[in-house]
Design brief:
Elements: H1 4-13, E1 16-19, E2 27-30, H2 33-41, E3 45-46, H3 79-90, H4 93-97, H5 100-117, E4 119-121, H6 123-127, H7 129-139, H8 146-156, H9 163-185, H10 191-196, H11 206-237, H12 239-247, H13 252-262, E5 272-274, E6 278-280, E7 283-285, E8 290-293, H14 295-298, H15 333-350, E9 354-355, E10 378-381
Helix pairs in contact: 5-7, 5-15, 7-11, 8-9, 8-11, 9-11, 11-15, 13-15
Amino acid sequence: MDPHSFLAEFRAAGALHRIEPAGAPPQWLVTTYREARQVLTDPRMSKRSDAAGLEPGWLINGSRSDAQPEYLLTLDPPEHTRLRKLVMRSFTGARIEGLRPRATHMAQELLDAVKARGGGDLVDDFALVFPLGVICELLGVPRQDGAEFHAWSNTIVAPIAGVEMESAFTDMTAYLRTLVSAKRADPGDDLLSGLITDVTDDKLTDDELVGMAFLLLIAGHSTTAAMIASATLKLMRRPHLLATLRDDPGQIPSAVEEFIRQDSPVQVTTERFATATTTIGDVQIARGDMVIVALNSANRDAARFSMPDEFDLSRDTSGHLGWGFGIHRCVGAPLARLEAQIALRALIEVIPNVEFEQLDTAIQWLPGLLVHGPAHLPVRYRSPEPTSVGR
């Protein structure tokens, strides 16, 4: 289901809402902008359940996992500070910008294939495979292994824990460990090789490299795919916006930020745990309670953004929480922006010539709490009429 009407009711009822899942720590869902920023910057909110006096490994779906690798989203300072600094040393703007020519060609190639077949699914055939191809290129992962990563990623961000999730954690970690060993023996010019061959004294260990690759592959694939799919649906539903961007592609970067503000692909943050009794807004949170921020609710808080449910290309989107906030702000945001901008530039030339049967009917949305976006966008492609030239 589309969560916005549901979240609006929660937001109107209060800033925080208590949830008591059976057999799991109590949870608080934060739905308003001010309180969301407070949680995202409060050092008493730890990413580790054991720092709050609980068993390690608690997740937002109410289960525990010992198979999940450690990475930036599971760490607090000073470990988080060190890892983020090391990664940003290689994950530079120049490296990301260097992907633009190949990524642009990749996007056009995928959409050309849709046109040649007379249609397809703009999620399965484009929104999913495009960012997966880019992140594999960045990390030096063979593209033929992309299908496995897609399956593991879907299982890991799924709403229900169990044997399949544990297996996905284990299988993906084992694959990445083998990949790191191979690149240590024979490095290339990709990001993972760059992290391995960093000549400074402080280097990432193999476990840290695996965790970093895990984060970038999961976050750089599922969330970017959902973002592109949501933007595609909005463009198909808003011919005026589509025409505006076709006439003035220079507005695409602003459109991307408004897409993210209004429909963040990361619906809620991953878990945080109160390490001490804490007051958020006017609600007292006990030590050991889990706190989750509903980003798609905070970004539609009328106390922060005027007429928040309206898509406004001229809006000042600064301060939106679609990329997160604070020390855990998305490390891959520059890459996701690049991918979204390239995808939209390609899509605005294709969408005028597609027909989507479900445009005015119920959309099937991705299941689960973490990632938000349409699951499928099946279309038929019709070739544009040739332009006649007067004499």
